[in-house]
Design a protein that fits this description.
Blueprint lengths: L7 E6 L1 H10 L22 H15 L4 E7 L2 E10 L3 E9 L8 H15 L4 E7 L3 H10 L2 E5 L3 E7 L4
Parallel strand pairs: 4-5
Antiparallel strand pairs: 1-2, 2-3, 3-4, 5-7, 6-7
Helix pairs in contact: 1-2
Length: 164
């Protein structure tokens, strides 16, 4: 399996670009394990409605977040958004296209988030992950994230980025 890190770049995305991209490109919202849209596996006819609703709610939640694309040449391989908190940089959204999964794209985006957190003098990088998304949980554990909190459906994970 080849890694693409040397060819990837992170570019800032304006709100409108990010929203338009999300509305036009559903593949980022497919679960890597089951191939269903989102984690609840909406029926085929309801999938666009579920995705549009999810994207619009996500846009409200990302209101003050910085948005980024991970690009390989001119193609978007991953998208993510971060939000500053008092002592942490919170990754509010992170998705990799199914065609680019398991090639180092998510790790590249996490590396960028950690570097950004250090530049902003944050102690932690935090993120949320659904309990059903075991592949993402394994990735985050390998990357050094540990459970900070949990609720019925998800975990909040954190990783220290403080200088040692």
């Amino acid at each position: 399996m080849r890694k693409l890190c040397h060819k990837l770049e992170i570019v800032s995305a304006r709100r409108r670009q990010y929203l338009l991209f999300s509305l036009l490109d559903f593949r980022f919202f497919k679960n890597s394990e089951t191939g269903n849209v989102l984690f609840f596996g909406a029926p085929r006819r309801l999938a666009p409605l579920a995705v549009f609703s999810y994207i619009l709610v996500n846009e409200v939640l990302l209101f003050r977040s910085a948005r980024f694309f991970a690009k390989l040449d001119d193609e978007v391989a991953g998208i993510f958004a971060v939000h500053e908190r008092r002592d942490a940089l919170y990754v509010k959204s992170l998705a990799v296209s199914p065609w680019w999964r398991r090639l180092g794209v998510a790790t590249f985006m996490l590396d960028f988030a950690c570097r950004l957190a250090r530049r902003l003098n944050k102690t932690w990088v935090e993120l949320g992950v659904l309990k059903a998304n075991t592949d993402a949980q394994k990735l985050y554990a390998r990357y050094g994230f540990r459970v900070k909190a949990q609720d019925k459906w998800s975990f909040t994970l954190r990783k220290s980025v403080a200088p040692r």
